[in-house]
Each structure stands twice: as C-alpha cells, then as structure tokens.
Design goal:
Number of domains: 3
Structural class: alpha+beta
Strand content: 15-25%
Radius of gyration: 19 Å
Order of helices and strands: EHEHEEEHHHHHHEEEEEEEEEHHH
Number of helices: 11
Helix content: 25-40%
CATH class of the largest domain: Alpha Beta
Shape: globular
CATH topology of the largest domain: Uridine Diphospho-n-acetylenolpyruvylglucosamine Reductase, domain 3
Distance between the termini: 39 Å
Strand order of the largest sheet: 4-5-10-6-7
Length: 298
Amino acid sequence: MHEIDYESPTSLADAVAILQKNRESVRCLAGGTDLIDHLRTGRIDARQIVDVKKLPELQILEAGPEGLRLGAAVCCRSVCAHAAIQQDYTALADSGAIIGGIQIQNRASLGGNLCNSGPAADSIPSMVALSGICVIAGPDGLREVPVEKFCVAPGKNVLKPGELLVEIRFPKPAAHSGSHYRRFIPRNEMDIAVVGVAAAVTLSADGSQFVAGRISLGAVGPTPLLAEEASTKLIGKPVNDDAIAAAAAAARELAAPISDMRGTADYRKHLTEVLTRRVLSAAVTRARGGKVDHRPGW
C-alpha cells in the first residue's frame, strides 16, 4: 500500500468539496469492511480517504408517518435493533442480520453495501422490494434515484465524481403488508449468496387477495434486479399456492445468472424459483400478522 491522505469532515458541504477536488483518486469510508480489504489487496486504488461517519445526515435513522429514513453510514446492528424496522421493514432486518458476523455488523452499513454495488449484495434486493429511494449529494445539490436503478454493472453505480450517497428513504408500508429476504449459500463459511430473493406484499383487509407486490433478485444478473413481470403476476390474484407459483416461475424466467464455482446457471435459475416461493409465503405470513421462524444458513 502507498500513503493515503485521510480527511474526516463534519459537514456534508465540506465532504462534497473534498470529493469534488479529488474526483479521480478519492474514496468514501463508512464502515470500511470492504474498502480497507480492497485497498490492501490492490483491488482498488485511492490517494485520499474521506471518512463520512461524522456527517449527521449519514447517521439519521428515523421512522414516522412518511416512512423510514436510513442514513448511508448507519451500521447493520442499529438497523436490526430498530423497533420500526423489525415491525414494518422486516426485509431490511433480514438482510442486516446476515451481513458478516457481529463484529462486521457493528461496522458495515446497508448504504455501504449498496455503494459496493455487488450483484450478490444481501441488502440491495430488500431495499428494492421496499421501494427505496437513494438521496445523493454532489456539487449540483441533491438528487434522488430509485434503488433498482442505482447499480449499473458489477461494482458500478450512478454516483458521479464528487457525489456521495446520503440516505435511503422508504415509504411507510400500507396496512396488511409484509416483507422478507432469504438467500442460499453452499455452506456457512462461504458468505456470498448463490441466489438472494426479497419480496414485499400488501394484502386485502381480510388477507385473501394480493393488492401489491414487489420481488427483487440478487446474484442472478450483473446487478440486483426488480422482477417487474413476476411482481405484476401477484396483483389482484387470490393469495394461494397457484398465484405464488406463477410469480416464482416468472422470476425464474427473468434470472440470467452465470455459472461459477458457487453454482451453475441452471442451478441458480432453479433456486430463484424455489426461493421466490418461500420468500413470498413468508411475506404473506408477516402481512397477516404471523411470525416467520427462519434461521439463515439452516
């Protein structure tokens, strides 16, 4: 490693100014659980690090009538422990609970996971399913981008030089809503999803019909995907095995995975269908007020 300049601004304006000045050789540091390792191994190069943990805007975590505001630097443990997230945004808690171990979760953030923009990232499908909106700050002010449009290629996103992710905002779920995230890994020691699926559903007051639904897939394309066609298969349909199976089959058709050491493309497509059925069933259970007994890795 070479010498790296370190800055720790306390205002968003100062952070943007530093990023703008050193556009091509600067990286933001939040938890650093990926960044530090990538710098050490030479996967990425940076001449300056901007520590964003002291920026109040990136540490906001509040839920209210308008929805949830999740600062980009809020650690996973804080997300998992938040009462409103546990009740209304459960897919986020599902994701945060499986990003590394306890030590990592006390450092890593969902915002950092999003900015890494990995196809197999565990938090991005949940943020997509829950209709997250990215708030981005830069030299030209603030702009908003839906989470499903944030990633553009493996490890690449819409952030321009001089910009940083400030927070992710989520609308408050309607009554009778539920969400879930689940992934498949070949063994507990390999902490990268072979396939990951998140779903958020809203049911009618009596729980018998799908009113709305969003399904998102991870690790089956160059970026996490919003499975729009699969999602529309649910709307207006009775809540039964046939409707869930039809949506799962549509999700399988959307998946375009590669074959690698963790699984073949055909295997991943099969897993996409299986996990989508299971995740939708769990989201329905939660929408009906039930509990989901799911232990990741089992």
